Amino acid sequence: MEKYINPWIKKIKQRPFNPQRPEGSVDLYIGENPYPPSPHVLKAIAAAAENINKYPDSAGDAVKEKLAAYTKANKEQIVIGNGSDDLIELMVKVFVKQKEKVIIPIPGYFSYWRSTKIRGGVPVFVNRKDNFELDIEKIVQADAKLVFIGSPNNPTGNIVSQEEIIEILEKMDCIIVVDECYFEFSQNTVIDLLQTYENLIVLRSLSKTFGLAGLRFGYAIAHPTLIQYFNKAIQMYPVNKLAQAAVISSLDDLEYLKANIQKICQEREVLTEKIGDLGFTVYPSETNFLLVRTEALNISGNEIVASLKSNNIFVQNIGLKPGLDAYYFKTAIGTKEENEILLKHLKQIVSNR
Length: 353
Ligand SMILES: Cc1ncc(COP(=O)(O)O)c(C=O)c1O
What we know:
By secondary structure, this protein is of the alpha/beta class. The chain is built from 13 helices and twelve strands. The strands form three sheets. A seven-stranded mixed sheet has the order 2-8-7-6-5-3-4, sandwiched between helices. It is globular.
């Protein structure tokens, strides 16, 4: 059997699937939006389901028109995919040959190196500085085909300034992807740099911000020539019919989006302060999750996660992930009620020490 498998696929470590989070648990594991999409969006999904015997629009023209208006880009600058994860892999497929290097600042989002390995490329990790800012000097020295930069970054929650992106673009001759998956939380973008830099790609997602994680939808904005190449390599039907209907309807309902984003950002500030008051270090976040350092309390991330899990609360143990030691965990910002339950149990863990 082994002889049939591509050698670079053999080298990939088995990634455990996400744990089951039982009904009724406080689920802050992946960093999902705690609120469902608006009733209009749910209606649009139900209406699209009535024609589910028909294939979706393979070009996604109506979706791209809406996105063009939303981003103030041209339709010809947009590619859509089955979540931004799908587009990360498409980018590696289009730009990276086997054994070519992809630069990934760490801590960073795991799909960057997973997709690189799936395509036979070589991920090159470049450590961020102690405060999680990019180490630009090291990044620009590396010889690579592609660089993935999260802004805001997962799991550190911080943005990269436009000046830093310009410096990288000026000093490197390769494709630079700025992943703005959390854009609506941060309101920080480098979209306007697309006019100057043909090698820049801005990647976005509707999973966390619009609460559409279950449908899978992401898009990227880039120079039309790059988009033409993406369209050569993309699947025939990259985005399903329900997702296309949901995205169109979501982009018609921006007031609902704004209200949810505002609630989550307010809760984020409360949670940041209260977790900090317990003695943890909480990193400032421009997303809907928090990275928490546990070292000051001498508890590992693993212990926190296990203890919360025994109380049916799910946060993520990201200790020992690339670029991190054992003293970290990551939690989504939930509803006010969920956040209060999390705080109550964190308090108990701290006082039981
Ligand atoms: C930085 C970043 N990019 C991309 C993604 C993938 O998002 P999706 O595939 O749901 O669009 C995530 C998901 O956690 C992320 O954190």
